[in-house]
Amino acid sequence: MTDPIARLAMVTLDCRDAEASARFWSEVLGWELVAAGDGYAMLSGPDHALGFGSLPDHEPPSWPDEHGRKQFHFDLAVDDLAEAEERCAALGASAVAPQPGETWRVMVDPGGHPFCLTKAENWG
């Protein structure tokens, strides 16, 4: 392995409402909302940070998209798939249809970003 040039400090998501997206992900991940205001919000987790930037004309990626323009997504390991889906939905996420498999659920956060819930046992 070579010496890295940099280390990942944070991933930032563009969205229409930074604070609303940050509050959603704060609840899902259990991370602290450490900054919010002026079109920006940031969560702090155990080893990383997650940022959100408001863009009034933001167009979220579509899912499914035959051209592969989802940009990126989170894969989140959960112990109970149904419970995690229900809790995310209560926070404003929605499940996409049709679902591509039995061991994970594709959902879209309130800002329109797709993410997957998957059984933790699938990650070894």
Automatic annotation (TrEMBL):
Coiled-coil ranges per UniProt: none
VOC domain boundaries: 7-124
InterPro entries with a match to the protein in the record: Glyas_Bleomycin-R_OHBP_Dase, Glyoxalase_6, VOC_core
Pfam families tied to this protein: Glyoxalase_6
UniProt xrefs under PROSITE patterns: VOC (PS51819)
Protein name: VOC family protein
Organism: Nocardioides aestuarii
Lineage: Bacteria, Bacillati, Actinomycetota, Actinomycetes, Propionibacteriales
